[in-house]
Amino acid sequence: ALALAAALLAADGTGAGGEPGTITLVTGEDVTGAGLYQQLVDEWNADRADGVRAELIEISGGADLVRAELLRWTQAEGFSYDILNIDNQWTAEFARNGWIEPLPEDVGASGVLEPSVEAVTYRDTVWARPFIADVGLLYYRADLMREDDLVGGWADALELLRETAEAEGVDYGYSGQFAPYEGLTVNTLEFTYGMRGSGGDSEPPVAFAADSGRAAVDLMARALADGTVHPGVLADGATEYDSFRQFVDGEVVAMRNWPGWYDQLARDPAVEPAAGGGEQPPQEAGEPDGGGDAIEFGVAPLPSESVLGGQSLAVGSASRHPDAVWDLISHLTAPAQQRRLLYCGGYPPVLADAYTGPIEGECPEPLAPDEAPAEATVQSRRGEEYSRLLLAEVGNAHHRPTSPYYARYSHVLYSELNRLFRRSQGELADGDLETLDNNLEEALQGR
């Protein structure tokens, strides 16, 4: 925290040694670990002729920690910042409190996939420029089953995964995110969307005591109770990494996870993409290739529309360099940079036309010559089918409830629902779910 404070004050220009020509971009951690965000900012700096420089400041930790740090600094007297790379679901909160500026018409969101625009729209105003998207995907054991078998909704998929696990000697059928954190909110909404069919965002997001919401949480409770879902997903502190480990260790037939885990799987010596999955990212030095004992994985859509993840670039209301700030945002969200975000880092673009086309520029950590595609295109890294899958899923995703009090809503949902799942024997009591609904209604109203 002290290091972050020093960096922010210095970059702000109001602290000791601050330079008036410096703008700050505050973001959560670049999960690639390769410095991709920094590379894109450095390229913008190299092209500037007016002396204005951009400084990237990364906050380590999960989404909740990043939000807490940003909230603390927005309320610090005398502090100003220029650009915040914020999770989409925080947009309404930051807009309502006057911490960010609306998106100017001359910047706009032309070419951005509609769900990403909707996610940063509050009271009919667009408050940020979508930067990267994120969606849930189903990673499955391609050596044990075919994607063609994964038809129908969540109930059919879970039954198939349970039967496959029993037939193939795998411990459990499925792993997702059911621990008391944002992951459970996302997973619950995705199950609910699956029960609604094409209803999507048209129904209130708080009706878990009846209708599609009740069907979703009942199905989740039964799958946990009968051993279809790995019980470790309920544990405090369990995250997407735990789902990844359960899949890699052969404990589950399939897992729900984000696109960023594709490369993690492909790099693991115990796992390899199924045939036709594009170029495999390079192994670390000294790692075995997996051989015939490696688990083969495939990627499929979820049995429902995904909840949209991702981040967007918002301008702080105290920024003193608006022209330079919007120019940097335009640079980071241009098609060439969007293609490189996917090719180099696995980040799904927010632009429809960034899912195809040639790559301009280098990755921070280029592929080894013997593993790099002959022609670097968006599709050549992980395969055309994967690029098409990502585009379709981002284009059909549903955003989370738009509310300045979303963080409170999510905390109520994941903490109470996790508690109910832990004590459930496959059935959830009417009274418990009615109480949950009432608490969610109050949370969305800021009470």
UniProtKB/TrEMBL annotation:
Region (Disordered): 271-298
Protein's recorded name: Extracellular solute-binding protein
Pfam family for this entry, one: SBP_bac_8
Coiled coil: none
Alphabetized InterPro entries for the sequence: Bact_solute-bd_prot1 (IPR050490), SBP (IPR006059)
Native source species: Streptomonospora algeriensis
Taxonomy, superkingdom: Bacteria
